[in-house]
Amino acid sequence: MASDEYPVKAVGWAEKTEYFSRRATGEHDVQFKMLYCGICHGDLHMIKNDLGMSRYPVVPGHEIVGVATEVGSKVKKINVGDKVGAGFLQESCRSCEMCTQNTENHCPNLTLTFGSTLPDGSITYGAVKFAKAFGAKVTVIGTSESKKKEAIEKLGADGFLISADPEQMQAAAGTMNGIIDTVSAAHPLMPLINLLKTKGNIIMVGAPDKPLELNTVALLLGGKSVIGSGNGGIKETQEMLDFAAEHNVVADVEVIRMD
């Protein structure tokens, strides 16, 4: 009996050992021991070169957490033994318009960091927790009923909408001030935009590998906006960490060993 064939596009490379030397810790540097790193959909994009910017070999994993082991003489805010983190942004020019406005995450000469040669748990969970901490009424939008209990009982959402249910979506039309879209796969935008009130915003955080279709008439008539947000700058990230500490906003973590 002939078996069905399911063609799969795969990316691979030959494993090899590479050596590099690390310079001595400078007066403005912090050296730290890496303990954990995140794995999100951005790593999947880099593995598959969905965004056309991958350089192989790629070791997935970024958003690093560790403990400071050596601190330069001119570093003021970090001491040896402190818990530290390193995000998606590694370096910027520090002198352009974006850098001087504390938005170095948009620097045209930035350097990104993956566990690789230099050139995602769901972010929805964090979005719900932060929104609740800000005092917002939060509705989670999912594709099926299976996530409803978790969204309401675990994350504290006030409501749940099934995007595949036209009656639910129609009943909620024009009721939302803003939507954070975390989906990293192709999906229809117009049903979400129809949920927005006049002057409402939809913020795109996911990075689908295919273009999304958008009818601009709905934006024009309702004064609505589509905004992109990939990551924040250093100042904004620190404000986020301070807010999380003050309001006990913590991440749901599943630890997976390398072996």
UniProtKB/TrEMBL annotation:
Which Gene Ontology MF annotations are present? oxidoreductase activity, acting on the CH-OH group of donors, NAD or NADP as acceptor; zinc ion binding
Which cofactor does the UniProt annotation name? Answer: Zn(2+)
Q: Does the keyword Oxidoreductase apply?
A: yes
Pfam families (alphabetical): ADH_N (PF08240), ADH_zinc_N (PF00107)
Start and end of every Alcohol dehydrogenase-like N-terminal domain? 26-121
Keyword rRNA-binding listed? The answer is: no
Keyword field: Metal-binding, Oxidoreductase, Zinc
Which residues does the UniProt record annotate as the domain Alcohol dehydrogenase-like C-terminal? Answer: 126-245
Q: Which InterPro entries match?
A: ADH-like_C, ADH-like_N, ADH_Zn_CS, CAD-like, GroES-like_sf, NAD(P)-bd_dom_sf
**Signal peptide span per the entry?**
none
Q: Which domain of life is it from?
A: Eukaryota
Q: Which PANTHER family match?
A: ALDEHYDE REDUCTASE
Name the family the entry cites: Belongs to the zinc-containing alcohol dehydrogenase family.
Q: Under which name does UniProt file this protein?
A: OLC1v1011625C1
| The species this protein was found in | Oldenlandia corymbosa var. corymbosa
